[in-house]
Specification:
Helix content: 40-55%
Distance between the termini: 31 Å
Number of strands: 7
Strand content: 15-25%
Strand order of the largest sheet: 3-2-1-4-6-5-7
Radius of gyration: 17 Å
Largest sheet: 7 strands, mixed
Shape: globular
Number of helices: 9
Length: 245
């Protein structure tokens, strides 16, 4: 199988009613390679599961994985570790970055990259305060962890088999200890993924992708920024203690 698409879901009934899975399905029906789509539910408390079950019956290759609630990081990790594709991509349910942007991602694996991440240059439509917080966040992670990427937080990242098995097997135990209540974006997850990937010597490419501000309720700027800062300090401490060696 060429491609696995991982879509985390926590109380996504509103997006499902908008037809986001149909958008994904319609695009993938036109590709010339085998694929699967794993919708990974994070213990939703609305009717996400029943809506997803109904919709996936109509789309070949779509599967639903049910988990206890633990947060986006654990949800994405579990999906990536279950993926059967040569390449596994995780993308947000709201399709802020449309699934068709995968065609900018896949060719780079043929060039020898192990991981390819999307970059939301400009972030058109996002509130000014969110852009400012993103700039501050980028400066802190660059100074503290030395990550060279323009955008670590875009929810559009793809991994080959070797990279995802090594990275996410290591990360699963740590993030399982940090289960959260309610909606949480787990900002530190993307940063730790890329930091660990660099430590393990994987080749990473960053490519500009289309992105639309969807006004998601998942983003709580103050809380998410503080949680992200704590994660950066945790990652730095773990590195100093040799846990990423």
């Amino acid at each position: 199988m060429k491609l696995s698409v991982i879509i985390p879901a926590y109380n996504e009934a509103q997006n499902l009613k908008k037809g986001v899975l149909e958008e994904v399905a319609d695009y993938l029906k036109g590709v010339d390679y085998d694929y699967e789509v794993l919708i990974v539910d994070d213990g939703s408390t609305d009717n996400t599961v029943s809506l997803a079950e109904k919709q996936i019956k109509e789309n070949k290759g779509f599967k639903l994985i049910k988990n206890q609630h633990g947060g986006k990081a654990i949800t994405v990790i579990r999906g990536l570790l279950k993926a059967a594709g040569e390449i596994a991509l995780f993308t947000d349910m709201d399709q802020a970055t449309p699934i068709n942007q995968i065609e900018k991602i896949l060719p780079l694996f043929k060039d020898g990259f192990d991981i390819v991440i999307g970059s939301r240059t400009g972030r058109k439509g996002a509130p000014i305060i969110r852009k400012l917080m993103a700039w501050i966040w980028a400066a802190i992670r660059t100074i503290t962890l030395g990550l060279p990427f323009k955008d670590t937080q875009c929810g559009f990242k793809a991994f080959n088999v070797k990279s995802r098995q090594l990275i996410f097997t290591k990360m699963l135990k740590e993030w399982t200890k940090m289960r959260v209540k309610g909606a949480a974006v787990n900002a530190g997850f993307d940063v730790e993924t890329l930091f660990l990937a660099q430590k393990l010597g994987f080749k990473i490419a960053e490519v500009e992708v289309e992105w639309h501000h969807m006004g998601t309720e998942r983003v709580q700027m103050i809380k998410d920024s503080l949680d992200g800062l704590k994660d950066i300090l945790r990652i730095k401490w773990n590195d100093l203690m040799g846990k990423y060696g």
